[in-house]
């Protein structure tokens, strides 16, 4: 294998240091790209620490730290006296996710019960009818590419936020292919390698995967505690803060209104972009929770229809400042030029009768929650849990052992559940 030239490492690495963040993380990110894209195949030797340090005009410790980080990830093999080279399998394209939530989705149907993937199992009849009405409206002159989102859906979402006490225009709304894409676009726009990001612990594992991919430094605050989160945000002033103040995933807690207000205002005062994930906020058993953005319109809100309507309706959105929305749209245009127009028209139709769809979904979830809670109190009485105030998950504390081992035992009995994801 041909190594990176010792006398000209910058020729292979390109403009690796043009971003923001510590140099060792920027160097590691560039090397990671070369390995994952196959441009540094397995077995490729890398030059000794001092050579690239001189060629890149950095300290030797920068190169050592970058190599060590990639060694910990399994991308490099590094042995004293033998050198450093790309690990076997290190150059076979992007690594597969180890997140058990996503792995469960990738597995073929095999008869295993899937409480690890919470969401409506069937699309409601209103969804089918909304698609029929949307089909009737297709056929007019429309190129079909809307990186910002289909105008009618953006207008419908803006009207809904305004009705909830958050003055919003279509310019504040970007439609995405689900909330996961919305979060991915926000991380790309607002987080550079080495940036600190504040999250709850535990939190939504899909967000953690995105932050790891961005090489962010993750700090955490106890889930559901708005006072502690606001204090940590003010103290650390991270590049981004991500929180689920209403029906938190996976714990299920909802911060009191005063805590949500304090958190929103603390973020604005500290100049920290606060991403509020409201995907589950509509599923509170006691009724919809007041939007956090009502206390501070500068708050960035992520929403979705997948948990209320159906996961197959890949329609999510971001509500943010128009300047940020335009920036996100440019990122999205590179990836997919915009989502399905038919799905977005159907989503706009659903929003006209959304409250009735949501109320039926909440009633069903409350009934299933009570059935599950009764069974847990009866069958394994030494398990501890607090009744959930909403959502689709129940946070259970085992009397002994660890969650990862329990999930393996459950899987052998035909049930897939999720352990706590480490921050």
Automatic annotation (TrEMBL):
<dbReference type="Pfam" id="PF00155">
    <property type="entry name" value="Aminotran_1_2"/>
</dbReference>
<keyword id="KW-0804">Transcription</keyword>
<keyword id="KW-0805">Transcription regulation</keyword>
<dbReference type="InterPro" id="IPR000524">
    <property type="entry name" value="Tscrpt_reg_HTH_GntR"/>
</dbReference>
<keyword id="KW-0238">DNA-binding</keyword>
<dbReference type="InterPro" id="IPR051446">
    <property type="entry name" value="HTH_trans_reg/aminotransferase"/>
</dbReference>
<dbReference type="InterPro" id="IPR015421">
    <property type="entry name" value="PyrdxlP-dep_Trfase_major"/>
</dbReference>
<dbReference type="InterPro" id="IPR004839">
    <property type="entry name" value="Aminotransferase_I/II_large"/>
</dbReference>
<keyword id="KW-0663">Pyridoxal phosphate</keyword>
<protein>
    <submittedName>
        <fullName>GntR family transcriptional regulator</fullName>
    </submittedName>
</protein>
<dbReference type="InterPro" id="IPR015424">
    <property type="entry name" value="PyrdxlP-dep_Trfase"/>
</dbReference>
<dbReference type="InterPro" id="IPR036388">
    <property type="entry name" value="WH-like_DNA-bd_sf"/>
</dbReference>
<comment type="similarity">
    <text>In the C-terminal section; belongs to the class-I pyridoxal-phosphate-dependent aminotransferase family.</text>
</comment>
<dbReference type="InterPro" id="IPR036390">
    <property type="entry name" value="WH_DNA-bd_sf"/>
</dbReference>
<dbReference type="Pfam" id="PF00392">
    <property type="entry name" value="GntR"/>
</dbReference>
<feature type="domain" description="HTH gntR-type">
    <location>
        <begin position="21"/>
        <end position="89"/>
    </location>
</feature>
């Amino acid at each position: 294998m041909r190594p990176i030239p010792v006398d000209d490492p910058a020729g292979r690495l390109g403009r690796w240091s043009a971003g923001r963040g510590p140099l060792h993380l920027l160097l590691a990110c560039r090397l990671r790209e070369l390995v994952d894209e196959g441009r540094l195949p397995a077995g490729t030797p890398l030059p000794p620490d001092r050579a690239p340090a001189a060629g890149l005009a950095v300290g030797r410790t920068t190169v050592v730290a970058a190599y060590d980080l990639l060694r910990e990830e399994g991308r490099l093999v590094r042995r004293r006296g033998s050198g450093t080279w790309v690990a076997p399998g290190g150059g076979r394209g992007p690594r597969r996710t180890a997140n058990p939530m996503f792995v469960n989705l990738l597995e073929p149907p095999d008869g295993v019960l899937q409480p690890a993937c919470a969401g409506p199992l069937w699309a409601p009849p209103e969804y089918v009818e909304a698609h029929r009405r949307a089909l009737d409206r297709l056929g007019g002159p429309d190129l079909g590419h809307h990186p910002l989102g289909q105008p009618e859906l953006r207008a419908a979402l803006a009207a809904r936020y305004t009705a909830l006490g958050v003055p919003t225009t279509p310019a504040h709304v970007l439609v995405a292919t689900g909330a996961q894409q919305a979060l991915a676009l926000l991380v790309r726009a607002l987080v550079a390698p080495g940036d600190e990001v504040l999250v709850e612990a535990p939190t939504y594992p899909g967000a953690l995967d995105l932050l790891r991919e961005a090489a962010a430094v993750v700090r955490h605050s106890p889930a559901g505690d708005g006072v502690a989160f606001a204090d940590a945000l003010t103290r650390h002033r991270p590049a981004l803060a991500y929180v689920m103040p209403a029906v938190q995933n996976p714990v299920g807690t909802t911060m009191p209104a005063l805590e949500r207000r304090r958190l929103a205002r603390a973020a604005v005062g500290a100049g920290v972009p606060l991403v509020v994930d409201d995907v589950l906020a509509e599923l509170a058993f006691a009724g919809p929770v007041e939007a956090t953005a009502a206390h501070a319109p500068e708050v960035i809100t992520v929403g979705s229809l997948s948990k209320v309507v159906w996961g197959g309706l890949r329609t999510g959105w971001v509500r943010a400042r128009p300047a940020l929305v335009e920036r996100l749209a440019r990122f999205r245009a590179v990836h997919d030029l915009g989502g399905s127009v038919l799905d977005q028209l159907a989503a706009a139709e659903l929003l006209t009768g959304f409250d009735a769809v949501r109320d039926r979904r909440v009633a069903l979830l409350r009934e299933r929650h009570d059935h599950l809670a009764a069974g847990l109190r009866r069958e394994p009485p030494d398990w501890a849990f607090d009744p959930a105030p909403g959502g689709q998950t129940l946070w259970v504390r085992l009397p002994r052992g660890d969650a990862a081992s329990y999930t393996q035992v459950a899987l052998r009995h035909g049930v897939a559940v999720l352990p706590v994801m480490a921050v």
